[in-house]
């Protein structure tokens, strides 16, 4: 006959060794980090400046008041006595040259202005 103490020890030993085996269901490896896709910006505005390069905009208005690059984007600002014009440039697709994709216009006191009228007043 088997002693109850021995049976208990054997059972405990079996449970202890079973716990070391790990989970019965294999776990999936975490996904590897990949580089984010390149930023592609499509214009949503329709004005005379959209689609022009920074060089073309410079030929229209001359030297900008501000020229700021941040990440993949670039902002060029022109100011006159009537309005301030901010032109934003992004590449329309990976590997392409940046073009004007967004334009903001405002009066010198901060109210919204019409982009084409402001651009016309700033042309040299």
Mean model confidence by pLDDT: 83
Report the biggest beta sheet as strand number plus sense, adding barrel if it closes.
4 strands, antiparallel
Radius of gyration: 33 Å
Shape: rod-shaped
How far the N terminus sits from the C terminus, by CA atoms, comes to: 109 Å
| Structure classification | alpha+beta
Biggest sheet: strands side by side, in what order? 1-2-3-4
**Helix and strand sequence:** HHEEEEH
| Fraction of residues in β-strands | 15-25%
Question: What level of helicity do the residues show?
Answer: 25-40%
The count of helical stretches stands at: 3
Low-confidence residue ranges:
none
Per DSSP E runs of 2 or more residues, the count of β-strands stands at 4
Keywords:
124 residues, alpha+beta, four-stranded antiparallel sheet, 3 helices, 4 strands, rod-shaped
How would you portray this structure in words?
A four-stranded antiparallel beta sheet has the order 1-2-3-4, with helices on one face. 26% of the residues lie in helices and 23% in strands. The chain has helices at 4-19, 54-61, 115-122, and strands spanning 66-70, 73-79, 83-90, 99-107. With 124 residues, it is α+β, with helices and mostly antiparallel strands. The chain is built from three helices and four strands. The termini are far apart. The mean pLDDT is 83.
